[in-house]
């Protein structure tokens, strides 16, 4: 998947479902993220072809609950985001869906108690060895692109150092949410600290946070230095949206 010069719909819990992703694609999104799905739940799913809808459904075993739904129309656009704390389990989840999606993304930025208590999301930010294990395990065993999303760390230097370690894992892009774990959604995103990551890496960086209207794309590009040739893909959120560069 090419991440440069793209409009991207960011992952949103309870919103990034198939109908919304298709609508975003219709309005210009080149890449669309599904909502985060926890690996524990997904590995208990079975792949089912839904002929009446023309979709591929991943249904929780023993129930009629559709955990993830996609279709051939978005095959080259949709990114499947996983919440995980274990490389083997993440790989097992990814292997179930990798032939039906365009890329896999590991959520390493969620600060919610549920994620952190399970060692997922932002809990991974303090475990660079585990980050390396998860990303390299998936990359070695999949032909599907693998990326991840992080938050800002306590210092600019810490964020840049972690981003560089992630880049060395061979990911084709990195998303950075412009808030720290202790920050709340009402706190302004620190675009200038995302700019530090942009200047330090040679892969596309996805800038996330405080993108509420179309004009914010240009504002965040200007603020983060996104006119640098190798950093120019975008991601869109809206209210909960954000931008990827």
TrEMBL record:
Residues 9-225 form the DUS-like FMN-binding domain. PROSITE patterns: UPF0034. InterPro entries: Aldolase_TIM (IPR013785), DUS-like_FMN-bd (IPR035587), tRNA-DUS-like (IPR052582), tRNA_hU_synthase_CS (IPR018517). Keywords: Flavoprotein, FMN, Oxidoreductase, tRNA processing. One of its GO terms (cellular component) is cytoplasm. Its cofactor is FMN. GO terms for molecular function: flavin adenine dinucleotide binding; tRNA dihydrouridine synthase activity. PANTHER family: TRNA-DIHYDROURIDINE(20) SYNTHASE [NAD(P)+]-LIKE. This is DUS-like FMN-binding domain-containing protein. The lineage of its organism: Eukaryota, Viridiplantae, Streptophyta, Embryophyta, Tracheophyta.
């Amino acid at each position: 998947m090419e991440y440069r010069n793209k409009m991207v719909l960011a992952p949103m819990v309870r919103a990034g479902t198939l109908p919304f992703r298709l609508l975003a694609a219709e309005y210009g999104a080149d890449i669309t993220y599904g909502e985060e799905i926890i690996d524990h739940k997904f590995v208990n799913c079975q792949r089912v072809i839904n002929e009446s809808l023309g979709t591929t459904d991943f249904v929780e075993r023993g129930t009629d609950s559709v955990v993830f739904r996609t279709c051939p129309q978005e095959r080259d656009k949709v990114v499947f985001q996983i919440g995980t704390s274990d490389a083997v389990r993440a790989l097992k989840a990814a292997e179930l869906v990798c032939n039906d999606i365009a890329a896999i993304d590991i959520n390493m930025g969620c600060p919610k108690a549920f994620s952190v208590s399970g060692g997922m999301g932002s809990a991974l930010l303090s475990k660079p060895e585990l980050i390396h294990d998860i990303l390299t395990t998936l990359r070695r065993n999949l032909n599907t692109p693998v990326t991840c999303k992080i938050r800002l760390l306590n210092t600019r230097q810490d964020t840049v150092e972690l981003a560089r370690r992630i880049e060395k894992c061979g990911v084709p892009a990195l998303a950075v949410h412009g808030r720290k774990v202790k920050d709340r959604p009402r706190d302004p995103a620190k675009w200038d600290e995302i700019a530090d990551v942009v200047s330090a890496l040679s892969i596309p960086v996805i800038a996330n946070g405080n993108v509420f209207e179309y004009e914010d794309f240009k504002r965040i590009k200007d603020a983060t230095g996104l006119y640098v040739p190798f950093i120019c893909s975008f991601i869109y959120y809206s209210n909960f949206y954000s931008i990827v560069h």
